[in-house]
From TrEMBL:
UniProt GO cellular component terms: 1,3-beta-D-glucan synthase complex; membrane
GO BP of this protein: (1->3)-beta-D-glucan biosynthetic process
InterPro entries per record: CALS1_helical, Glyco_trans_48_dom
Annotated protein name in UniProt: 1,3-beta-glucan synthase
Gene this chain is encoded by: LOC112281321
Keyword hit for Transmembrane: yes
Pfam families attached to this UniProt entry: CALS1, Glucan_synthase
Single Gene Ontology MF annotation: 1,3-beta-D-glucan synthase activity
Transmembrane segments: 6-24, 869-891, 1015-1034, 1116-1133, 1145-1166, 1178-1200, 1206-1230, 1250-1269
UniProt keywords, alphabetically: Membrane, Transmembrane, Transmembrane helix
Domain Callose synthase helical: 204-385
Key word S-adenosyl-L-methionine present: no
Location of the Glycosyl transferase domain: 393-483, 487-1202
Length: 1304
């Protein structure tokens, strides 16, 4: 069945591709091609070696179309995969609960859904087909709201208690992470058995305004009790709010009145009369419904004052409020007060001859101010009674809302039934770590960048709600912001910031949620009702009444109190057992490769790692220990020293209060023989245990509510997916860095599509999902016997993750993908970081093409599965490169036709031919622009999970924040490094850094990073466009714009992209500073100890490193590609006025005299500069003046004697400068063994320096102009960061300026 599905998928893709290619690519070009071939009298404007220009024109016309033909399958794959991925996502019920409003509507089903999906079944009984069918029916009934079991959910049900326990634990973790405030905790948590209310106590946020809605609904209703009750029961939350409020009010009255007072018994009698009327369906006949609003107001007034925790001196106010309530209940509320009063007298001893002011004076007993449990429930009652508007914005934080929505939605998705913890598969988590940040230091938080912005200030603006919640939490510890800096080396502040960065502390906290979740699940697997409620709740219930208002016997409290010690002892024993069970099922190993060296060097990171071990006692640290050992060598008869290497596993022992060693395994030699990260994983894999291992990067995190679903996920290993059980379980990721900046948002959106929709389609229907990264879960035993989870050969395995997938597929494994559980993932947030990441991935894919794994897959996969593999791995990068090459082919073809004169000959006098050619060209451009459809998956996935309106708005916002520039720029990065790796190899790991990018990158840094990958190529495209603008034939400017607008956009994006997304990239003062820094870098001489950041010469040498290691074919192909730069000179010299329309070959040969003259002039001036500039400055100036005079004289002579014009000067630059660049590139290829030791080499280096200087000035010129324009910098900051940070940044600058003035 699997092969049928992916065969049908590719049949649809290929049918669409071939139909589109024929009707919109090939067919429109047939008529122009025939006309071009039939055309005669082609007049050339240069020396044509092959006079059959018609065929050359056909080649120029068809070449880009053919390139598009071979790459547009990628576009059609994106379109079809978007549709199929959305369909599969709909079947998986993704995005059904998108927001808090939808969550509130379905929350009443959550206890039943939680019990069904996440609580264990009795797996000791063999599951039958009938049992499976019943499970399916139950899942469907919950999913589509057919089930009504939740209508009967009461406080006494064990299912509700389990759900409440887990839900409250989730809310607790949210508060610990500062995602919600204390008030939001009160509104969102579920009281467990509080005051023994007979209905299930939903979170207060669901009950808000339900009481007032109920009162307004029945205020003037004239029906009987049944109709009133039907009105209330139309909404489950409203019914529960009414019942809970009434029964809670009983408890409040009992709490504040003395048991032996007459007033106490009067109120009990009143409640019994009300209960009796309700029970006999006589409530509407006994009481006035309109008076309920007045009773409600008096109750709210009483509760509001009680919440102030009044002292004895304020008892009179409580007495007064009770008297008002008493009067209302006894005289205003009943339809017949005298009959009601007689009933009360019959039930209780009514005090005689008491005035109203004397009632309750001696009966009131104020609650203890320290009774937090009472006041907590009293506040809940007050919220339920007094809230007028629905609480639709609780929680306020977007992250908390997102996580709750996803968890709630996942309860209705299909997942295996959970086993008990003691029967679940044991698993380990493995995280490789090298030398990244563990916890931000105090200095890092305080350090200001050039704009006076610190990391802490930045985080406060990006996460304003989290910061306020953190301060609120610290306030309960009696710490204000200034004291936090002094308390324990600002540890709380450092942790708060670290948990919002890409640090090891964040990862460890998240992964240790697994242990916490297992402990909770172990407790719930065998918990009784009393254990769910806890000791305090039991005592509270012991003093409460039942739902009818009768009192429990006082003796019951005594019996509970006498059992308190036994219950507490049993609880401790069970807790120890739960901890032991959880520890047996979960192991977390962080493989800190150089932890041993860090300890020896007293590195602060080692101390932070030890702090993490102290905080999380279940954490294990693996590292490589290097020791020197002396031994006696009998062969030479003396002692020698050798290095020994060990894999070591350590933990923190809380009893010994120190780090202790668990295992030490001797290695045969140094660890790092291949790539660092896979070697780091491989040496620690032996320390993991269990049936599965989850690989987690150190920029990831897990959430407590997701960790609860881990035992469901592990059960997937026991389920057949197709014909085999899975060996790798793919897990969905959420990119949590999207809120940092616009760039981070773009990267987050791109990565979200890859880890959701793309992986979904790869797993089903294509059956070709590999292992693309963490947090996939491996069948540990399967992989241990088949080569491990990482391949570590140097260079070829730079992208080590996917080779695990290759290995799995080749050995008959099965890879699946599951989206009911998610892990957090950090991504790069700055353009330079993103560019290095894209370069690493592109280089890795280039190496994959050269690997034997891909070769073997090509031999083992069938045709359609191989198509899936190709277009989802290396084929994506090939197609990406083809898009760029299509633009090059199109522009070079148009320039060839323009410079040779073929275009003018074929279009002049033939409007039909001109229009046909234009139509064909526009069709080519249309297909190129269809590449925008590759963004379709992003829109589709966003629409699936957040709704079409949200997706459309996000896409519009992205475009306003210049997302197109970012994605086009990234395309250039991928193309450059993928192509370079194919030609020359040499992929290498590039550390991207995981910090916050709030600093301005200097121009020299951007030039070093993007010069060869973007600037050179962008300038080449601009030269081609200018050349075609000058010499091409266009019927109008509109035609030119239509034909070339995409090419202009690509060229300008590659030149200006780094500065558009560079913080303060258009600040005039910074631009001036950057220019000076760039000039200093360009002219600084290289030396042995000089770094790349200091000297152009060192950088230039490093930039050519790939040419020193490439093979013969790589050099030949590089030379062939460099020959294109000579076409500029060959074509343009024949268009100079000085040639007089002469098309002889000698014109071109004579033009080389210009190049020889320029080379001679540079040789003379450079030698003069080197030998005379310092010793004989006057002679040096004289030589410079003579050179200027000779050049001027030559220009004047040419002006007078020939047809030389001023335009020829500009055209000459356009002609000869690319030739010089081409010569330099060829010389670099031939450097060894021909040119490096020759006298010409110094001249080549000097000319190369001048070219880089010229290109730097060309790139910086528009940056300087835009920096000079007012308001442009503010607009850029607004684009880069959200509105709050933009305001904060301006305030920070003002404060900095004010502080400086005060100092002065």
């Amino acid at each position: 069945m699997d092969n049928v599905r992916y065969t049908l998928f590719w049949a649809c893709v290929l049918t669409s591709k071939f139909a589109f290619s024929y009707w919109l690519q090939i067919r429109p070009l047939i008529a122009p091609t025939k006309q071009i071939l039939e055309a005669t009298d082609v007049r050339y404007k240069w020396h044509e070696f092959f006079p059959d220009g018609n065929r050359a024109a056909v080649v120029a016309l068809w070449a880009p179309v053919l390139m598009i033909y071979f790459m547009d399958t990628q576009i059609w794959y994106s379109i079809w995969s978007s549709g199929i991925g959305a369909f599969v996502g709909l079947l998986q019920h993704l995005g059904e609960i998108r927001n808090v409003e939808q969550l509130q509507l379905r929350f009443q089903i959550f206890p039943s859904a939680f019990q069904f999906s996440l609580m264990p079944v009795d797996d000791s009984v063999t599951r039958t087909v009938w049992a499976g069918a019943k499970d399916l029916l139950k899942r469907l009934s919950l999913r589509y709201g057919w089930s009504s079991v939740y209508d009967k959910m009461e406080w006494g049900q064990i299912e509700g208690g389990r759900f409440a326990h887990v839900w409250n634990e989730i809310i607790k973790t949210f508060r610990e992470e500062d995602l919600i405030s204390d008030r939001e905790v009160e509104l969102m948590e579920i009281p467990q058995g509080a005051w023994r209310v007979s209905v299930f106590q939903w979170p207060s946020t669901l009950l808000a305004n339900q009481i007032l809605l109920a009162l307004y609904s029945i205020r003037y209703h004239r029906g009987d009790d049944k109709s009133v009750w039907n009105i209330i029961c139309k909404n489950e939350y409203r019914k529960c709010a009414v019942v809970e409020s009434y029964e809670s009010m009983k408890h409040v009255i009992r709490k504040i009145l003395k048991d032996d007072s007459d007033e106490f018994h009067i109120f009990i009698a009143i409640f019994e009369e009300i209960d009796f009327a309700i029970r006999k369906d006589r409530f509407t006949e006994t009481f006035k419904l309109p008076e309920l609003m007045e009773i409600h107001a008096r109750v709210v007034e009483l509760i509001s004052f009680l919440l102030t925790r009044p002292a004895e001196k304020h008892k009179q106010k409580v007495v007064k409020d009770l008297q008002n309530l008493y009067e209302g209940l006894l005289h205003d509320f009943p339809l017949q007060p005298h009959i009601f009063l007689e009933s009360i007298k019959a039930r209780a001893s009514y005090p005689q001859n008491n005035k109203g002011t004397e009632l309750f004076m001696d009966a009131v007993e104020l609650p203890d101010k320290g009774d937090e449990h009472f006041f907590k429930n009293l506040k809940r009652l007050h919220t339920t009674l007094s809230t007028r508007d629905p609480l639709l914005y609780v929680p306020k934080g977007l992250e908390a809302r997102r996580r709750i929505s996803f968890f709630s939605n996942s309860l209705f998705m299909t997942m295996p039934r959970a086993p008990q913890v003691e029967r679940m598969l044991a698993f380990s988590v493995l995280t490789p770590y090298y030398n990244e940040e563990v916890i931000f230091s105090k200095h890092q938080l305080k350090e200001e960048n050039e704009d006076g912005v610190t990391i802490l200030f930045y985080l406060q603006r990006i996460f304003p709600e989290d910061w306020l919640n953190f301060l609120e939490r610290m306030k309960k510890l009696e710490l204000n912001e200034s004291e936090l800096w002094e308390k324990d080396d600002a540890l709380e502040l450092r942790l708060w910031a670290s948990f919002r960065g890409q640090t090891l502390a964040r990862t460890v906290r998240g992964m240790m949620y697994y242990k916490r979740a297992l402990e909770v699940q172990t407790f719930l697997d065998s918990a009784t009702e009393d254990e769910l409620l806890g000791i305090k709740e039991l005592l509270e219930r012991g003093s409460s009444t039942n739902s009818r208002g009768s009192m429990r016997s006082i003796g019951s409290m005594g019996s509970i109190g006498s059992e308190l010690e036994v219950a507490e002892l049993n609880r401790q024993r069970k807790l120890e057992q739960d901890l032991a069970n959880a520890a047996m099922k979960f192991t977390y190993v962080v493989t800190c490769q150089i932890y041993g060296a860090q300890k020896k060097a007293n590195d602060v990171r080692a101390a932070d790692i030890l702090r993490l071990m102290k905080t999380h006692t279940g954490l294990r640290i693996a590292y490589v220990d290097e020791r020197s050992e002396s031994y006696f060598d009998e062969n030479i008869g003396e002692y020698v020293t050798r290095q020994l290497y060990y894999s070591v596993l350590v933990k923190y022992d809380p009893d010994l209060k120190q780090e202790v060693e668990i295992y030490r395994i001797r290695l045969p030699g140094p660890l790092k023989l291949g790539e660092g990260k896979p070697e780091n994983q491989n040496h620690a894999l032996i320390f993991t245990r269990g049936d599965a291992v989850q690989t987690i990067d150190m920029n990831q995190e897990m959430y407590f509510e997701e960790a609860i679903k881990m035992r469901n996920l592990l059960q997937e290993f026991t389920v057949y997916h197709g014909t085999r059980k899975p060996t790798i379980l793919g897990v969905r990721e959420h990119v949590f860095t999207g809120s940092v900046s616009s760039l981070a948002w773009f990267m987050s959106a791109q990565e979200t599509v890859f880890v959701t929709l793309s992986q979904r389609v790869l797993a089903n229907p294509l059956k070709i999902r590999m292992h693309y990264g963490h947090p996939d879960v491996f069948d540990r035993l399967w992989f241990l016997t088949r080569g491990g989870i990482s391949k570590a050969s140097r260079t070829i395995n730079i992208s080590e993750d996917i080779f695990a997938g290759f290995n799995c597929t080749l050995r008959g494994g099965n890879v699946t993908h599951h989206e009911y559980i998610q892990a957090g993932k950090g991504r790069d947030v700055g353009l330079n970081q993103i560019a290095m990441f894209e370069a690493k991935v592109a280089s890795g894919n280039g190496e994959q093409i050269l690997s034997r794994d891909v070769y073997r897959l090509g031999h083992h996969l069938d045709f359609f599965r191989m198509l899936s593999f190709y277009y989802t791995t290396v084929g994506f990068f090939v197609s990406n490169m083809m898009v760029v090459l299509t633009v090059y082919t199109f522009l070079w073809g148009r320039v060839y036709l323009a410079l040779s004169g073929i275009e003018e000959s074929l279009t002049s006098g033939s409007p039909a031919l001109e229009n046909s050619a234009l139509t064909a060209t526009l069709n080519q451009q249309l297909v190129v622009q269809l590449g925008l459809l590759t963004a379709l998956p992003m829109v589709v996935e966003d629409a699936l999970e957040h709704g079409f309106t949200t997706a459309l708005w996000n896409m519009i916002t992205m475009q306003l924040q210049l997302a197109s520039i970012f994605f086009t720029f990234s395309m250039g990065t991928r193309c450059h490094y993928f192509g370079r790796t194919l030609l020359h190899g040499g992929a290498k790991y590039r550390a991207t850094g995981r910090g916050f990018v709030v600093k301005h990158e200097k121009f020299a840094e951007n030039y070093r990073l993007y010069s060869r990958s973007h600037f050179v190529k962008g300038i080449e495209l601009l030269l081609l466009l200018l050349c075609y603008l000058a010499y091409g034939v266009s019927s109008s400017s509109g035609t030119y714009i239509l034909v070339n607008i995409s090419s202009w956009f690509l060229a300008l994006t590659w030149v200006m992209g780094p500065f558009v997304f560079n913080p303060s990239g258009f600040d005039w003062l910074k631009t001036v500073e950057d220019f000076g820094d760039f000039m200093q870098w360009i002219w600084f001489k290289g030396d042995v100890f000089v770094k790349v950041e200091q000297s152009w010469e060192i950088w230039w040498e490093e930039e050519q490193a790939h040419l020193r290691t490439t093979g013969l074919w790589g050099k030949l192909l590089e030379i062939v590609l460099d020959l294109r730069f000579f076409i500029f000179q060959y074509g343009i010299v024949y268009h100079l006025g000085i040639t007089g329309n002469n098309t002889s070959i000698f014109v071109y040969l004579a033009s080389w005299s210009y190049m020889l003259f320029a080379a001679l002039l540079h040789f003379i001036l450079s030698n003069a500069n080197e030998k005379l500039a310092a010793n004989n400055h006057g002679l040096y100036r004289a030589i410079q003046a003579l050179a200027i005079a000779i050049i001027t004289a030559l220009v004047v002579v040419l002006w007078v004697v020939t047809n030389f014009t001023f335009v020829d000067i500009i055209a000459s630059f356009l002609a000869f400068l690319p030739t010089g660049w081409g010569i330099i590139q060829i010389c670099l290829v031939l450097r060894r063994p021909f040119l490096e030791n020759s006298p010409l080499w110094s001249t080549i280096v000097a000319v190369a320096r001048l070219y880089d200087l010229a290109m730097g000035i060309i790139v910086m010129a528009p940056v300087a102009v835009l920096s000079w324009l007012p308001g442009f910098q503010a607009m850029q900051t607004r684009i880069l960061y959200n509105e709050a940070f933009s305001r904060g940044l301006q305030i920070s600058r003002l404060l900095a300026g004010k502080r400086n003035r005060n100092i002065d």
